[in-house]
Structures
1.
Amino acid sequence: MTEKGELYEVTADFSGKVGDPQFLPVSKGDIIHVLKKETGWFIVEKKVNGKVPQKILRPYTLTLPLTKTKANSPQQGMMGKTYLVRHNKLNTLFVMKRVDYLDDHEKKFALEEVEQMRRLSSQYTVRLIWTFPRDTDLCLIQEFCSGGDLRNSIAELQKISEEERLNHVWELFAQIILALNHLHSHNVLHRDIKPANIFIMEDGTARLGDFGLAKDLKDTYNATMAGTKFYMAPEVLLQKTMGFNADVYAVGIVICELLTGKHLFLMDTEFATIANIIEDEFVDELSSGAFGRIIVMKLKITGQIYVIKRVPYVRSNAKQAADNEVAMLKSAHSKYTLSLIETFPHDLDLCIVMEYCSGEKFEIYVPNFKRNLASTLTRHHTSRLKTRKCDFGLTLSIADKSYATFVGSKVYSPPEAHIEKKMTKESDIWAAGIIIIEIITGVHPFEGKMQQETIDNIITVPKLKTFSW
């Protein structure tokens, strides 16, 4: 099997240029790695980087003179097997990762990893040298990091003095963060930051590797949860999605492990460890939808519980919608509405912190529920606010007109809203009535087998059942 890679063979001697170290001396027959191509000159990597004339270089076609080293058995991981191999002609060690490459899904997955490694190649990441298919696998030949991965460093760091350990970990931390910034600046989420995926070079510098789970976030804000659960943030384990902050959290756990010699939340079992991670901050996720995610959070210091609504805050229309919701919360503030505590930006979202309603012993408050709900709507309407939904994300001011565009939950909207596509103050009163009936009887008065049947029942307004209470 052969494949042309970034390795080039030198066809003639070049002694460099006297007094100019940017031009690198090379000898005929040398095999060198090209980092960058410029007109007339290639920047190549040997012990140092330098320029070599393009005319004396030709692509080096690699055959497969690789031998597995006897001292290393394959390392089996979720994303494939990894071997330490030696190139016989170059007498150089490389790492060979073999990933499944049989059906279309496996090929797509493998080629995505290759593309990520090529696109993200830098001084902060483990470099891909070349690839070739073999049997039912795709083999990825990567540079060899002689210092191993950070798993080897955790125990060794505990043997040196605290001051030495702290200084060394700070150096590693800076390099890992630079690597992570490199990925995130290319809109790539790693999704599996852990000691086993951070490698140490011969000179002691750190490089980030294993991009099998890396995800491009160019057109979205988050990705599906993937990776090693012990290094996942509480919100990732609860919400099953990951953003750039998930990588940063994982780096924090790795750094704590390097400093202390143990995982920050490690318990006797995997289940207990995950429970320990989650219970440290988050209580639950209430809901998730088009207008944001609503999370219950418990402050570590005071133990007080709040509700945090995270809404998108990047594009101009998303920012306007979020700012409008905050303004409505402030305008409608009363003893009948959720109190706004504060707001703050986080990653690509705006976090709206509100008081938490525990919902305990709700039956005690049912007799007063109708009066309180009516008082709330009265306050909103006298403020010329149209609720359109109990969440303030759809609240609209109708100071200059008598109606608003039809939005919100269709099964709580009146017939005229469905027909005319408009909503008025009476729409809120209708919704309040539906809610009261549903609370008292346990059944939506127009309930059908499917949502559309419920909507049809609302529009046609059939004869309703008579309820007694």
2.
Amino acid sequence: MELELRYEHDSNGIVTLWVNQPKMPVVVMDRWLLSQIDLALDRLDAETEPVTGFVLMSASDRVFIAGADLNEIQGLGDTELDAYLAQGQQILNRIEALPCPSVACINGAALGGGMEIALACQYRLAAEAARPYPMGLPECGLGILPGWGGTQRLAAVIAPGHALGRISTGRTFGPAIALRYGLVEAVVPGEQLHERACRLIEQNPKPFRPRTIQQNAEAVQKSLVWAKRCRTRPMRRLPAADRVIKSVETGIQSGLDAGLTEERQALVDLRSSAECQGMLGAFFARTGQLKKFAKSLGDATPAPCEKIVVTGNSMTAKYLAKRLGRKADVTVLGEGETKTDGQMYIAAAGVVRQEQLSLLRSVSAMAPDNAVIVTCSPVLGIGDIAESVTNPERLYGFVPGWPLGKSPGCEVIRGTETSDSAVGTAVALCKAVGGVPVVEYGGGPSAMVRMFRGLVGQAWELAIASGDPGRVDRCAVALGFPGGPLRAIERIGLSRVASLFDDDGQALFGGIEQVFADATSSAASDALAQASGQGNESVTWDEVEMQLLGALADGAAEAVRDGVFGADCQQSPTMENLEPVWLVATFGLSMGAWLKDALLSETLKRM
């Protein structure tokens, strides 16, 4: 194999390696790239001219290195996977042992293996960005753990407590937090990354061996005690967290090589587990939706949306105004205010139907004829809404997942007259809020509402049965729900929920009408406190898990049965061969949902 990566050795002795994968949309650490980096290190070792420093750059303008190729990992047998991991560990050890200073220039997302190779360098610089990009080790959120030294090196670079907390939960860093924690030396303008890296090498010409967790053993041991205590809490039940702790303990007791061996073996073991396979399955299904959605639109040209007008006083309105304001000129209108030169008008009045219709009529009246109108109503059918606007071809529904900013699914609800251009605009809107788009067709409550109302109804019943409402919410979060369903009731407000129970029972929280019928101003916490006094603490965690997931699956089945995605799920190009696992995972759960094979099997039966 020949070296295909860009390799430069300048007159100051600094070697710069540019990682790239022209045939891939982003740079991933697959076996080809690992071999290329190994060849580059061979060339560096063979240099006859002095080498004073090593700079690792990404040729991609989107990411640094997005992590390992999960599809490739899924296709390997256990022996092949072990060899693949061992190869990566050996290459990163070579970088760490270079006889010159090394700098990783992080210009975008650095996840998993991308973060691990950066940790093998002596220094790290991050690029400034208008929108923060993630850096870190998210593997535990997929049921596995870092396999190229992440458990050994992160706790040696930053405070061990922060490192263990981030690794065991899969949480990532933005550039500003990474700088605060000491993960990167500086955050600089992107165009200055290489220049600053060379300057850093010139200012620090002598190489040094990075600290190991053995050298920081006392602080790491204290953090391990804390991590083990947290493992008793329901919110820390990701299956890989125990193996993270064991890998770190091995590294402290027996050194880096032993820690790497334990880390590698743990990843091989976890990859084959039912929990991991379920979590990876949900991940693959969900991440494929944006590509499928964009492809289904063909050559449709999105309408311009540089000038956005947001109306309404709901949490959704505030959320969208904040997220979209980073990339567009956003105007938020107060009551009675108008603006007639917008390109996109978003009507987000909350969950009360009459408020939604009234706001939509006023928006339709002020919007120019060529503007796109977006309704954020999860309850009203798009056909009913279209009757309230002129030019219904420019109207579509858009409902971000709940809790806002945490649930990945974003519903794009298309009416019979909605144009391809208007739907194409939804792609840009989904990208702007970081969501995964799901195309639906109007006709009553959306899929997310159908799932969410069953979930909340079941959570309420479990709160009464268990005598501990907080316990039900904690269990939901432990399962992987983006937030507690009972807490969601409190945030929305019981008076607003109660106002939904009309029109033949088509209400947001079906199944608990009587509970809310008399609730007008009481806080949800008061109602839950009264209900908890009737409880029976014999309800087990397994029962709570099964019933919550089952309620969500029932709602998903109802959405499919009632034709939310088209009469036979073929009207919507993105919903062909609809996979229930994907549907449930996208709207209601994070990947941590699939902790038990029994839960997955039960969900499939319900669908």
